[in-house]
Amino acid sequence: xxxxxEVIERLTELWEGREAGILKGSPEVFNRYRSGAFSEFLSLGxxxxxxxxxxxxxxxxxxxxxxEKYFSPKPDDFRExxxxxxxVEDLDVWNMVLLNGFFPRGDEGLAMLPGGIWVGxxxxxxxxxxxxxxxxxxxxxxxxxxxxxxxxxxxxTDGLFLYAPKNTVNTKPIQIVxxxxxxxxxxxxxxxxxxxxxxxxxxLLVCDHAISPQHYxxxxxxxxYVGRNARFEIIRVQNQHNDSGKITHTFIHxxxxxxxxxxxxxLHGGLVRNATWHRLNGENAETHSxxxxxxxxxxxxxxxxxxxxxxxxxxxxxxxxxxxxxxxxGAFNGRIMVHKDAQxxxxxxxxxxxxxxxxxxxxxxxxxxxxxxDVKCSHGATVGQLDENALFYLRSRGIDEREAKLMLMFxxxxxxxxxxxxxxxxxxxxxxxxxxxxxxLSRCASCAIQCN
Amino acid sequence: xxxxxxxxxxxxxxxxxxxxxxxxxxLEVKPGEIHAIMGPNGSGKSTLANVLTGREIATxxxxxxxxxxxxxLDMSPEERACEGIFLSFQYPIEIPGVSMVNFMKTAINxxxxxxxLEPLSASDFLRLMREKKELVEIDSALTNRSVNExxxxxxxxxxxxxxxxxxxxxxxxxxxxxxxLDIDALRIVANGVNKIRRPDTSVIVITHYQRLLxxxxxxxxxxxxxxxxxxxxxxxxALTLEERGYDWIKKEADVTEExxxxxxx
Lengths: 452, 265
Known about the structure:
The complex is a heterodimer. Chain A is of the alpha/beta class. Chain A has helices spanning 4-16, 18-23, 28-44, 60-64, 78-83, 122-128, 130-136, 148-155, 388-395, 401-417, 423-437; strands spanning 94-99, 110-113, 117-121, 160-164, 174-180, 186-196, 201-210, 216-226, 231-239, 244-254, 259-268, 271-280, 286-295, 300-309, 315-324, 329-338, 346-355, 361-370, 376-384.
């Protein structure tokens, strides 16, 4: 039986009571797009497996659950979050703590870091930088088929705002620790906007950190604008428990001569789906999309990537890897789209997966869509076991089988991690992955980033 | 009690996919001896290396292998390595993402653990790396990379000898270590082996050609043909083989086989 009509009914009830719950306190620019977005959501619905992009991802378990709470936390809820500190040894960062995707002290939360980069809540940003927010909000989150994006636009009340004005450079990376903590089961929609203006640079680390055992479902939309000759890097470390669902849609819009890199490291999570859209809108831009996941038990991890080459002379790479054990399932859906005028495009895509058990399953679908005639594009996908020859080679030097397998899996994973631009962080994440592979990382409390 | 032989292979039979490859092989190696095993393609040389190192491609169907008085066939590949067996691979494997440093550190410490020793400290390990790198003339650029990744054929072989230097085995099996090497690389590799060897290190050189044996001079040369050692001799046997090829050996061996079969009837 289709579970969706009931869920849509529940969401429609929320929508109908919007005066009190959704509209109140929300930025005016958010409210402007809601009605249109909600109708769009109703016509697209919750994606099912007939939707090409969700062919291998079943949302039912996460979406059919009856959540008790749908909106942003109340100010009181943040007390715990404000006490939370994350000190990462050897890693010098600006540290921010969010609760379920929301910035503490909603309306007032906006601060400028040394170097001139602004960090805060969307609500505060809409007050302080109204024309900037208006210029970018809901301009890049465009897709024709995924109903969850307009659902977010219709219901989101706040989110994170990051702004690097022209030629500003963050002196050290910004670390966002997103605490998932709630006394109730919660389905939340956060809406984030990142603006990196011409010549500016921003480097961002986002850690999801579940600290209470409730059911969570997060439907996150993040829009990123990367101006001319600007540089943006984002690394996400997702470490959530098996009763949590995490859906992210990240839209990275790049102007000419810009650089962007996205790296999603998924260590744990019941259902995780990361959709990353890269649009190369100006000449000579470069973009990289990386992803690594390690899944076991009944976890499902999916990566969806689309790189849109809309301008000539741009370069892009996609490298996604997965290790699957037990009954875990995974999906990769990656597309390179080269528009008619995007001559001299260089686009590369690779998806490699290792299956450790008979019952794990990986579906992969690499796609190319090319309308220009002078381009270099390649793609490839593999699903296989650990290399027996390599395993024997390590064992023949005295390394026991278990350790040798770990080394190979780690080597496989490191291929993605090595692209993380911050060295201290790369080492940390290497460590996390190693712990995860050893089975020592079962929940956030043992996270090697060592927040406390 | 110290056994006289480090390695003793008795009447060894082994098959791959139910096809018998080794058909009753005998070989005895004392500490410090160098044995060369030569033979035409398909005679079972690589299978012997696989069986000695515990690779599961080949199944042992009969016979015994004793190493330092212990039953080798009971041991996993890693136990054999810890006991002191080292194989220089004919085709070394590339392992992207696993650094040479991490690989060697893990291997050495696993072997030390097996012998009841503490792991090497980071500084002792690095000192050892430096020493051995000089000994086998291997470039630091190589040892800073992932295992064999992007190495040329010669660099891979040199890296095998570097690993041998690090692990200091009691028995080294060199499986066609000379194939594909130019004369300079061959000399470096062979000299490396000679420098690493202690008086009691035994070596089995598996090769097609006599060339390597100019540098690593064997005490004994054995000819492996059709799964058996059909002739053994001193270093001069290798020269004879180089000159006359394997045909005369084949003929001789086939005749013996026929006679033997007839006798049995």
